[in-house]
Specification:
The complex is a heterodimer.
Chain A: H1 2-29, H2 34-38, H3 47-56, H4 63-75, H5 89-124, H6 129-143, H7 146-160, H8 176-210, H9 213-220, H10 225-263, H11 268-277, H12 281-309, H13 311-315
Chain B: E1 4-5, H1 17-23, H2 42-46, E2 58-63, H3 78-84, E3 92-94, E4 100-102, E5 105-112, E6 115-120, H4 134-145, E7 162-167, E8 172-177, H5 184-190, H6 201-204, E9 217-223, E10 227-232, E11 246-251, H7 255-264, E12 269-272, H8 274-279, E13 286-301, H9 314-323, H10 326-334, E14 338-340, H11 355-362, H12 367-376, E15 383-390, H13 395-406, E16 411-418, H14 420-429, E17 434-439, H15 446-449, H16 459-462, H17 469-480, H18 484-500, E18 504-517, E19 520-521, E20 538-539
Parallel strand pairs in B: 1-13, 2-11, 2-12, 15-16, 15-17
Antiparallel strand pairs in B: 3-4, 5-6, 6-8, 7-8, 9-10, 10-11, 12-18, 13-17, 13-18, 14-18, 19-20
Helix pairs in contact in B: 9-12, 10-13, 17-18
The chains are: A mainly alpha, B alpha+beta.
Chain lengths: ~325, ~550
């Protein structure tokens, strides 16, 4: 198992390196830089002043030089500073990540807690009213755009109950209830798609697993229906589901931008969006690298979980 | 429809810009005169004498974008000033009708073309308890001229030709100019780039996240992408102000989130788009405010060397000017809530051309004339052109209307909508044929026409082959003419020249909508695009 983990980590390092180069170049391939934006409304600035601004922000030097400054800084724990407000990028990332991680964890929790049992129920009671309801619900969940649902939920609660989630970020350590009331609507909005995928995936894999010989054997041996489902069938059925959830972590972090914007949550997605509009290279690079690393890390975790769910995988 | 127009009505007891400068003794070259700047903050109280003003309470205002930082100097985003405007003051200020009024300065005297002596009011205290002195002004002006990070030196171009500040005494200083520059008063009145801060501010606090000024509210802090917190400044130099105890500016980028928060009472007011604001007009808890705004839309063209594009001919540009039906744009894009605009937007004090002049002469929709001009220029069969614009707000819509209108002149307009950063890059580098773009607030009328003068760096990027000698003369003379009475006709004449020989085709000036809860009293929509009205707001319940 130790060797397996080391192999996976060793594979992740060059991936991150390649991703970092990709991110650095892609950001600079965007038309226009922060200087264009800073001087966008000003028709009287000279080229000399623009060049001075470029130097002031540390945007001088060739791309390899700039890349080296950035990547060597990261190895020393220095992600640079925001071009828009000179805040250390690491501070911006930590603040934003706290919000987004909570949102994503809550969304995954909702998606899993509802999606998995619903998928199992749908598979076990195949072609019943439960199954039909779950399948239709799954289809609806896949079809509804999360930003639309978020807006609808927000407008509905404000109109029907005169209530909107608290506007100012509440730490879960200061006020867990207040924090939950702030995150519940955005988490529901963002979880519906994942919930539908999880439900459908669990249903499909459960149906497959329930037809396997070892399940029939277990039943023939007189093992109880509940035990067969929970211990024999579900555990094996969960392997592809874990894969999906692993993927969804990255997708949710990246896709949280609109939801965070709608609910005024200063998370990774929202901050990244603002940084892109403002061509704030250090923030874009750090946030994108963070999302990429989360994706890689989540996949690493999924790979490791395979080993736990099915020891044969790690032995191979 | 119960929209309240808030910025149109004049308010008594205030000096207009002309009167103020007269009193200040601005009489042109070499003049030495003096005059007290009278007037106090009567305006806000005068309008509401019927309803007793209630003091106290807390207001939450929804801001539509993040300020990035709240540093006093070099903030490029409008949102930067939205966030900091309640913490700082400047030497003079604008009232709601853009009349200049005294603020931190008691008076100023024009000593010569390049020297103005200012006298500060005594006893004004910063939020940290320190008294305002000439040394603070010197420190502030030096940073206006060279904004430290996180400010951007890109704002320096907005600063008039200030050379240095000479401290004469604790309350008197002389502002030396490099050359005569009439933009100076508007620059300070605008306040956006000219706040007065205590000496050594940048060594005392993190200016990105906090502020120390003389404003009506003391900033408690700015949380990026989240909020700005203010509390009342009990030592504010305008006695009796402000009314509220505290204020929070909550950043809510999504418009529907602002609507939901307004309806739920989580915020007390916010800026909204025309249609959304009007849809709230029947809500018994809300009040819709509207007012003219500095923002106007225009069609911008390039005239570069070595190119021979149809619009290089003055006749074609004039044809476009008369081939665009602005009334139709106002009706279709803005539901009737916009106005004709020249190069200086309507509402900008005495400087713009009149609505009548625009409608009946310079911007008159006259298709036969436009077709004749096209034919005379040799383009009776039209031509193809690419028009770039922003991919958001009203820009794609107004572009589509202009596109359909110009079809009548057989001009085949291809619209390319771009993200703001991309658009800004192409616009700044002049890599476009036509741009449908916008202009915003300026501290002085010069800011609206300076770009048509060859001295502007961007002139050589956008239209080096453009010739408008009479307009150039007016723009050059206007900037150095300190007497406003003489400046007004100079700029009007320059604008008329620009209208007859346009290189940018002004389209329409838009109105700004803000929606407040009924308890919010005395709020108005500021022409400047800031939320200046919040300074004097009080809460009824």
């Amino acid at each position: 198992m130790g060797g397996y983990i080391l192999r996976r980590i060793a594979f992740a390092i060059p991936t991150i390196f390649v991703v970092s180069i990709g991110i650095f170049l892609m950001v600079r391939l965007l038309p226009g830089d922060i200087i264009d934006i800073l001087f966008g409304g000003d028709q009287t600035a000279s080229e000399a002043v623009k060049e001075q601004a470029r130097e002031q922000l540390g945007l001088n030097g060739s791309y390899p030089e700039q890349y080296w400054r950035w990547i060597s800084g990261i190895f020393q724990g220095d992600f640079g500073f925001s071009l828009r407000n000179t805040e250390p990028v690491s501070n911006i990332v930590v603040d934003a990540l706290t919000v987004t991680l909570e949102l994503v964890i809550l969304a995954l929790l909702i998606a899993t807690v509802i999606g998995v049992p619903l998928g199992v129920l749908s598979a076990v009671k195949r072609d019943s009213g439960w199954d039909l309801g779950a399948r239709v619900g799954g289809l609806v969940g896949l079809s509804i755009p999360s930003f639309w649902l978020a807006t609808l939920l927000l407008l509905f609660t404000s109109r029907a109950f005169g209530w909107v989630p608290p506007l100012v970020y509440i730490s879960p350590f200061d006020d867990p209830i207040g924090n939950l009331s702030q995150f519940i609507l955005p988490a529901i909005s963002i979880s519906v798609f994942t919930m539908a995928i999880v439900m459908r995936m669990v249903r499909a894999t459960m149906l497959e697993v329930l037809g396997q010989d070892y399940v029939r054997t277990a039943r023939a041996k007189g093992v109880g229906r509940r035990t067969v489902i929970s211990k024999h069938a579900l555990r094996n059925a969960l392997i592809p589901v874990v894969t999906i959830i692993g993927f969804e972590i990255g997708v949710l972090i990246g896709g949280a931008a609109i939801i965070e914007t709608i609910f005024g949550l200063p998370g990774v997605g929202y901050v990244l969006l603002q940084a892109i509009f403002g061509r704030d290279y250090p923030v874009i690079q750090a946030m994108t690298l963070l999302i990429a690393c989360t994706f890689i890390f989540a996949n690493l975790l999924v790979d490791l979980l395979y080993g736990v769910l099915d020891p044969r995988i790690s032995q191979e | 429809m119960s929209d309240e127009t808030t910025s149109d009505s004049p308010v008594g007891g205030e000096l207009d810009r002309r009167e103020l400068l007269k009193r200040a003794g601005v009489v042109g070259a070499g003049a030495v005169a003096a005059g007290a700047l009278g007037g106090t903050a009567k305006a806000a109280t005068k309008r509401h004498r019927a309803t007793p003003i209630k003091k106290g309470g807390r207001l939450v205002w929804g801001l539509e974008s993040d300020p990035a930082h709240v540093a006093p100097f070099g903030g490029i985003l409008t949102a930067n000033h939205w966030a900091k405007e309640f913490a700082y003051d400047s030497l003079v200020e604008w009232d709601r009708n853009l009349n200049v009024r005294p603020a931190l300065a008691e008076k100023f005297e024009i000593l010569s073309k390049t020297a103005i002596r200012w006298t500060l009011k005594r006893g004004i205290k910063f939020h940290n308890g320190k008294e305002l002195t000439s040394a603070d002004v010197k420190y502030s002006v030096e940073r206006m001229l060279n904004p430290p990070l996180p400010g951007s030196i890109s704002t320096v171009a907005q600063v008039p030709a200030i050379d240095r500040v000479q401290v004469v005494s604790k309350y008197v200083f002389i502002l030396h100019l490099k050359q005569s520059d009439a933009r100076i008063i508007g620059f300070f009145a605008w306040q956006r780039y000219a706040p007065i801060v205590p000496e050594g501010l940048y060594d005392q606090i993190n200016v990105s996240r906090n502020a120390i000024g003389t404003g009506p509210y003391r900033m408690l802090g700015y949380e990026p992408n989240d909020r700005i917190e203010y509390v009342k400044n009990p030592n504010f130099w305008k006695k009796g102000f402000p009314y509220m105890n505290s204020m929070q500016l909550k950043i809510l980028a999504d418009e529907q989130a602002r609507v939901a928060a307004l309806k739920a009472g989580a915020i007390d007011g916010a800026t909204l788009s025309v249609d959304v604001a009007r849809s709230l007009a029947n809500d018994s808890n809300l009040r819709v405010l509207k007012g003219p705004n500095a923002g106007f839309r225009e069609l911008q063209m390039t005239i570069k060397r070595g190119e021979d594009k149809p619009w290089h001919k003055q006749g074609v540009r004039l044809a476009v000017m008369h081939g665009i039906n602005r009334a139709d744009i106002i009706r279709r894009v803005y539901s009737g809530e916009a106005e004709y605009s020249g190069h200086v937007p309507p509402g900008y004090g005495p400087w713009p051309l009149s609505d009548k002049e625009l409608k009946e002469k310079y911007e008159k929709f006259d298709l036969p004339l436009a077709k004749k001009l096209m034919a005379d220029a040799g383009y009776a069969n039209g031509f193809k052109v690419t028009m770039t614009t922003f991919a958001q707000q009203d820009y794609p819509l107004i572009s589509a209307v202009v596109q359909s209108q110009l079809k009548q002149l057989k001009i085949d307009v291809e619209i390319v909508a771009q993200e703001a950063g991309t658009f800004a890059a192409n616009n700044g580098r002049g890599t476009f044929d036509w741009d449908l773009t916008g202009r915003g607030m300026r501290g002085d009328v010069d800011g609206y026409v300076a770009e048509f003068h060859p001295a502007a760096p961007v002139f050589n990027i956008w239209y080096p082959e453009y010739r408008a000698v009479k307009a150039w003369r007016g723009i050059g003379n206007g900037r150095i003419q300190l007497d406003p009475a003489k400046r007004i006709p100079i700029y009007k004449a320059a604008q008329r020249e620009l209208m007859l020989n346009p290189v940018q085709i002004p389209l329409v000036a838009i109105k700004k909508y803000q929606v407040v809860r009924k308890r919010v009293q005395n709020m108005y929509v500021a022409f400047s695009d800031f939320n200046t009205g919040l300074r004097n707001v009080w809460l009824n319940g």
